[in-house]
Amino acid sequence: MPPFVKVLILAVIQGLTEFLPVSSSGHLALAERFLGLNAPGAALEVALHAGTLAAVLVYYRRRIRAMLAELATGRGAGRTEAAAILAGTLPAVAVYAAGRNALEGLFDNAPAVAWLLCVSGLMLITVRWSRGGDRPVTVGRGVVIGAAQAFAVLPGISRSGATIAAARHLGLAPRAAAEFSLLLSVPALLGAIALKAGELASGDLGDVTGAALAAGVGVAAAVGYAAIAWLVRALARRRFWMFGLYCLAAGIVSAVLLAIGR
After folding, report:
1. Boundaries of domain holding 237
2. For the segment 71-105, what is each residue's pLDDT rounded down to a tens digit?
């Protein structure tokens, strides 16, 4: 398969699954196994993460501007929300730092990824019975949601799914849960870019052209923006839990196919 086509396919997968609660890591790992779509170097990973980061920043640009203004003036909820995002980022950083080698080894274990996708599906289905409410974001709730994000360092566990499910069970309203989850993804995406940028400094540019990388950024950003809008609508219409059915089915089918293929 030509590298340019591979880049576009991976960009679509990344853009859709980074924000929809279906696990981008799980889908990319299974795509590599079933379709042979191995990501060609760190340059592409940086490009795809940059595209999805751009999607979040553009979609929530008004809220981000307001938060920065509130931080500067000391008024509004911006200071509390920023502190909650910072506190919510720390658990995932600690878990990844402590078990990086073991976690990265799981990406090569396709059966484990498939079953973890099933776990993700069951977690999402529980949102159907969440108590709901309209509670505000606090630092304490940010830590709990961050702990859910730390669980999602496992390939097959959806980051957005885990954090939104935790937020809904803690009583955040649907739109507030989506907003906090996606703003919480900004430090995670920046961290992923920083890790891969280190590899770029060592010369790992892969085998894609500059035009392919630019296309990957644009496609990942556009698809990611559309995925965020879809996610917010699904939450508002109380259909978020239905993504769990997809994850459960995809995990079971993948596990069966992998078992047959042995």
Report:
1. 3-260
2. 888 777 788 999 999 999 999 999 988 887 777 77
